[in-house]
């Protein structure tokens, strides 16, 4: 099931479909009253739920540990039943980890009996139910990206979310063992001090990777060793695991760890339940799950070879569901393995957490990059729970909502040609492509500034205020280009070189538009019309800075 926060502008764009939506339960006296009520609160309370059966519009209030359903409309579909609609809604509520769900509507004898049969109590107006939880934490493979998962775990602990099962593949299995110990300090210590030579044994494992050439040289060393020895030795990783994991802490855990590996030579998926009473054997299975053959050596267990579970099931959601999970928190860290296509019942709550940012090379381990990825995991999970706002960046509150309408009004007066471009559908297609998400008019101010932040390569591991974000943008615009020394993947290095040194990169075009705001010759107008999204971003930033100067 897909869930999306929606706004009035989204309803306007899908008005034809929304006007066909109908009440199923008696929240209001008529379909038209329910639609009007939904439109009046959509910006604050509106959600769209979609699954294989169709689309539902939901209005709800989340206060503390209670989720109150105040309106529910469905696009007419024979596939929907009372049971499936309530299952979808309960799944949505459990994805917010509330204790209780309340249906605030008019009662009648038929509904009384039906809701009672599904564990609900009658209220003066409607029904309520205490929600049970059987939660699984599913961790995908991704090598050095795994620090992100520890950041997600930190945020879940802060939100007091617990798990009956942890299911992991490759680095997800290793992190699952850390989670099983319930020792956040041990996990942080491991990832913030990790290096490639602590994981694999090859000549350049301890070398610095501060440039693209350094990165390529280290990868070349790994490949040569892997070809020579049929995979680089995982002896350093085995020693690291033995020094980190504590059998007593494993035995104290109430959770189960399920890990995936791949058996050779038939490439069959094998699921192993971690047994802390046989710690040495259990650590062998952890190594097997993480042995990314042929870069790493296969692991021999009981005269059978096993390799990385990502070859068959890199994000083992199905493993958790087969054990009885009713909520699945799945963390995909962009590993190279195969993610199974899993049909998930509408009664199962799915929380998918994955960063929009690339997380570096999955084969090169670096403490600094691990700390950044861990921070990203924490911040992006806290955004899911509504503690921060933003998509690419993290803000301590929704801080830009008063700026968009005055800017558009000013653009219409002072730059009518640019305003005319902004009204076209093609413009918004380009904005969505740049932002890589759907864009609602109600949050355009934040969306546009986030796009500017990406163009200028602002750090995503900071919690920004409005003023601090604008300050960082100003600093980037006025600063001289500096040599970057982060541990990046090859694709990140290539992107950096393109943006910094290619004359026609998006960053260069944006800065050109920003610095030529006052020039209105036909040639400049023609250039802006070819890249209207970048021209509008530049005008928007100039509007912000001009407002700061006037206020100052």
Give the secondary structure arrangement, pairings included:
Layout: E1 2-5, H1 8-13, H2 15-18, E2 22-23, H3 31-45, E3 46-51, E4 54-63, E5 66-74, H4 82-94, E6 100-103, H5 109-116, E7 121-123, E8 126-130, E9 135-139, H6 147-158, E10 165-169, H7 171-181, H8 184-191, H9 212-229, H10 235-244, H11 247-252, E11 256-263, E12 268-273, H12 279-289, E13 299-301, E14 304-308, H13 317-322, E15 327-331, E16 349-353, H14 367-384, E17 394-395, H15 404-414, H16 416-422, H17 425-435, H18 444-455, E18 463-464, H19 466-478, H20 490-501, H21 506-515, H22 522-530, H23 532-551
Parallel strand pairs: 5-6, 9-10, 9-15, 10-11, 15-16, 17-18
Antiparallel strand pairs: 1-3, 2-5, 3-4, 4-5, 6-8, 7-8, 11-12, 11-14, 13-14
Quick take:
By secondary structure, the protein is α/β, with parallel strands linked by helices. Strands 1, 2, 3, 4, 5, 6, 7 and 8 form an eight-stranded mixed sheet that branches. A hairpin with a 2-residue loop joins β4 and β5 (66-74).
Structure description:
The chain has 552 residues and is of the alpha/beta class. It has 23 helices and 18 strands. Strands 1, 2, 3, 4, 5, 6, 7 and 8 form an eight-stranded mixed sheet that branches. A hairpin with a 2-residue loop joins strand 3 (46-51) and strand 4. Helix 6 runs antiparallel to helix 8, helix 6 runs parallel beside helix 14 and helix 15 (404-414) packs across helix 16.
Radius of gyration: 26 Å
Unreliably modeled segments: none
Q: What fraction strand?
A: 15-25%
Helical coverage, percent range: 40-55%
Could you report the average pLDDT, rounded to the nearest whole number?
A: 92
What spatial form do the alpha-carbon principal axes imply? flat
Distance between the termini: 49 Å
Total beta-strand segments: 18
Number of helices: 23
Structural class: alpha/beta
Largest sheet: 8 strands, mixed
